[in-house]
Amino acid sequence: MSTPTVTDGPPLVELHGVTRHVQLPNGSTLEILRGIDLSVAPGEHVAVVGRSGTGKSTLLNILGLLDSPTHGDYLLEGTPIGRLGSRARARRRGDDFGFVFQQFNLLAGRTAVENVAAPLLYARGRKFWQRKRLATQMLERVGLGERLDTMPEKLSGGEQQRVAIARALVRGPRVILADEPTGALDVDTGRAVMDLLDTAAAETGAALVTITHDLAIAARADRQFRLADGVLVPIHLDAPGPVIEAAAAVGATVPAAPALGAGA
Amino acid sequence: MSGLVGAVVEAWDELRIHKVRVLLALVGVAVAVTAITGITAAVSMLGQAMQESSDRDQGRPTTLTVYGWNSTGELDPLAFDQAVDELAERYKISYHSVQANQQLPVRSGASDTYVQLTVVDPSYSVITRLVTDGGRWFTDRDAEALGPTLVVNQPFLDQLTDGRPVDAHPQVTLGGDTAVQATVIGTVPVRWEQEGPMAYMLFDQAARWLPDLVRDQQYKIWVPTELDEDLQAVLRRDLTAMLPGMHAEVQLPWDSGFGLDSATRWVVLGVSGFALLLGGLGLLNIALVTVRYRIREIGIRRSFGATGSRVFFGVLMESVVATFVAGLVGVVLAVAIVKNIPVERVFGTALQDTPPFPFTAALVGMACATGVGALAGLVPAIYAVRVKVIDAIRY
């Protein structure tokens, strides 16, 4: 197991006994998450793996304040999120979280720099008024300084995800939530994108929570979890053997054994 | 502050990106605003044209007409004139004029031709909006002139001075018992076809050289509208007191009925309003369809920290900003159209006081457009807020 290097500080995000139910049209209740306990420290990289439909995205949405637990407590820097109104939650979501999606979710019809500047429209003060400059700087940091005015459809998949990462980072989030960030990319491009995410998170001190099918990607994290039947279980992905076992356990695939070494 | 600016910037960006769709939706709104604003302005100009036409006949609003008669005998015209002058001075009335319509004998060859004469004071031109199209109108100093002067129409010049232009100061001999030479100093426009020769002469000159023509006079007195009924009673009382044996009658102007009544105006505005409503419905339709296409984008924006109210306000603002711009275009179009109306051809007469483009019409047009935008944006905005964020992102 890799040694967590940044987990010693006070938790940034804490989930205690979090459950999430949804009511189905036939009146029955579907349990998506059951008794989730998780804490993420500032600067830590955590990965969650699991089959499709096991509630990974629901967990990520709860972490990112896009969804609420049915039961249980969510503390953000010690503040119980359940007590916040929807307005305060939206504000904290904008201030503290950056999202990276599998399908990039870039805004159509807007250039790369306009996409990166979009979150700053909801910021206040200097960040709002200097949004164009900040977006330009962020795109330069992810190596797209030459593609500022390019429309998303003219960018390659890897470039689009880099724009999405720049957009997630531009407000200086405390937590980056990545939902299958390499899911739509080939192996090499996916690795490069993860390198970028890891570097950016390390530089800014942001925590990174990655949800992935790809065990090689998960293995780059400080800690890994498996989500199965709504229950979160810690796993270890620091060696080829267990990786394959774990892959069998979660129904995931291991694209290339050497790729595991990158983050392990 | 940054919240409001952010919402407007967001709305503007959205319009910029979807400009074709927005343009299509807004054509109807802009055209309706042009119609509302333009018609309001045109109605205002038409009203002014009719008012000016009415003023030429009976004086400006509010012009009192004073008549006098003496039951015991002939009324002394000079005493009547002096009494009216005194009253005008007493009540600080700036413009008043005598008006006496007579037949003026003008020597034409061996015989006299009778032309229609109006005996007036210099203020007559102000009260009745009479403007000369050649030479000049009377001034107070003309009362001291050594010979009578006339302001005439073109038929007068054609028939009685052999067509000599007014600049040549043509002279005519006024007939009657004692002939006198009169000089033409100005001409007034011909108001209708087949108009015969006519002339204006100052009361003081007529009293000196043609005293027989100074009788049966009435007075036009231009008074503030809010004081018309008070002054009507006061002038009648004072005149009767000043001229023993005289009966004075002071009349308020009769309603010409020329002005567009408010019902007509409301019908016109109603039709335009309906057109605007239809434009708004088109906009609503397109906005609703678009917002369905934009569910994912709304979800992404929620992940950026957009609050529900911000999403609501943002979608609403798109519609409002769009219709505001359409309203602006509509008003500009209306101004361009109204300013280029060939007034003389449309209204039959040139306007002396062209009314400025009615500011209220422009404001009403803008307000209607923005209001329609807000209404059309309301439904999509509610829809956008009720979108589930998680579903929206995965949409």
Record keyword descriptors for this entry.
heterodimer, A: 264 residues, Rossmann fold, 6-stranded mixed sheet, 10 helices, B: 395 residues, alpha+beta, 10 strands, elongated
Topology order of chain A in helix (H) and strand (E) letters: EEEHEEHEHHHHEHEHEEHH
Biggest sheet statistics of chain B: 10 strands, mixed
Helical segment count of chain A: 10
Helix percent band of chain B: 40-55%
| Secondary-structure-derived class of chain A | alpha/beta
CATH class of chain A: Alpha Beta
Tell me the domain tally of chain A. Answer: 1
- Strand composition percent of chain A: 15-25%
Indicate the percent of residues in helices of chain A: 25-40%
The pLDDT mean of chain A sits at: 83
> How large is the count of helical segments of chain B?
13
Q: What count of domains describes the coordinates of chain B?
A: 3
Mean pLDDT, all residues of chain B: 81
Protein name (chain A): ABC transporter ATP-binding protein
Keywords (chain A): ATP-binding, Nucleotide-binding, Transport
InterPro entries (chain A): AAA+_ATPase (IPR003593), ABC_transporter-like_ATP-bd (IPR003439), ABC_transporter-like_CS (IPR017871), ABC_transpr_LolD-like (IPR015854), MacB-like_ATP-bd (IPR017911), P-loop_NTPase (IPR027417)
Domain ABC transporter (chain A): 13-254
